[in-house]
Amino acid sequence: MIQCQLEKSAQDDLDKLDPTIAQTIKNKLKELETYPEPHRWLKKLKGYQNAYRIHIGRDWVAVGRLEGSVFRVLRVGHRSKIYKLIER
Question: What does the alpha-carbon distance between residue 21 and residue 17 come to, in Å, rounded to a whole number?
Fold first, then answer.
């Protein structure tokens, strides 16, 4: 099991989104906490230090750091723009 924590930057990203999309993303992150094998859904990002992503639906991505059993969500955004928002 894993615990998802939203950082302030990720919460700010969610606040800017349509409420329906933001709720879908929050629901998916809550669902991730119930998966027996969350690492199956979290994919390591190449070229980024200790960064992982999870796709939410077809167009949305949550990016964060995996620290033990805690997934700290740093940014949330559209798949076409999210990778420009995070530091390498």
Answer: 7
21: containing domain: 3-85
CATH classification at residue 58: 3.30.2310.20
Contacts of 45 (CB under 8 A, 6+ apart): 51, 52, 53, 63, 83
Residues 28-74: pLDDT tens digits? 999 999 988 888 889 999 988 889 999 999 999 999 999 988 999 99
Domain count, the chain: 1
Tokens encoding 73: 């969500």
pLDDT digits (tens, 9 = 90+) for 57-70: 999 999 999 998 89
Helix (H, G, I), strand (E, B), or coil: what is residue 45? coil
